């Protein structure tokens, strides 16, 4: 399934894994928008463009110099950072259930179980 369209190595359209929503940036000067595919109704304006959308358009993955940032529209404080020691690779995607995030390169695929990553990262925080 198509998850994003790229132009000059920048995703311009991202589609959720269930095919219900897509995000796009109409112009560089305008904020990205989340749109429902069934009726093309605008759902939300996003603060930044995402490279992948989770099921039901509730989770978003953005690319940063440090790696991927996974955030939720209703829980911005729960943002998850997936640091990297590898190239960013190709188009990322969420699983249809939203519990996994995958991305790939020329000869590899990485798969993150998001709840497991959150749990392990929590054990590394001071005072835990």
Note down, in words, how this protein is organized.
The longest helix is centred in the last third of the chain and has 10 residues, at 114-123. The strands form three sheets. The protein has a five-stranded antiparallel β-sheet, with no helix packed on it. Strands 6-7-8-9 form a four-stranded antiparallel β-sheet, with no helix packed on it. It has a three-stranded antiparallel β-sheet with strand order 10-11-12. The termini are far apart. It is 8% helix and 41% strand. The protein has one helix and twelve strands; from the N terminus they run E-E-E-E-E-E-E-E-E-E-E-E-H. The chain has one domain (4-123). The chain is mainly β and 128 residues long.
Pick out its properties.
8% helix, 41% strand, 1 helix, five-stranded antiparallel beta sheet, mainly beta, 128 residues, four-stranded antiparallel beta sheet
**What's the total count of β strands?**
12
- On the 0 to 100 scale, the average pLDDT is 79
Biggest beta sheet attributes: 5 strands, antiparallel
What global shape is seen? globular
Which structural class should the secondary elements be placed in? mainly beta
Cα gyration radius (Å): 15 Å
| pLDDT < 50 stretches | none
Order of helices and strands: EEEEEEEEEEEEH
What portion of the residues fall into strands of 2 or more residues? 35-45%
Strands of the biggest beta sheet: in what spatial order?
1-2-3-4-5
Helix content: under 10%
């Amino acid at each position: 399934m198509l998850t994003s369209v790229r132009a000059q190595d920048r995703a311009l359209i991202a589609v959720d894994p269930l095919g219900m929503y897509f995000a796009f940036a109409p112009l560089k000067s305008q904020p990205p928008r989340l749109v429902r595919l069934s009726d093309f109704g605008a759902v939300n304006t996003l603060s930044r463009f995402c490279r992948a959308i989770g099921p039901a358009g509730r989770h978003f993955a953005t690319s940063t110099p440090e790696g991927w940032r996974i955030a939720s529209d209703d829980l911005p404080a729960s943002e998850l950072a997936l640091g990297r020691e590898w190239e960013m690779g190709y188009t990322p995607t969420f699983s249809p259930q939203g519990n996994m995030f995958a991305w790939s390169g020329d000869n590899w695929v990485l798969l993150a179980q998001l709840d497991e990553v959150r749990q392990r990262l929590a054990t590394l925080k001071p005072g835990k």
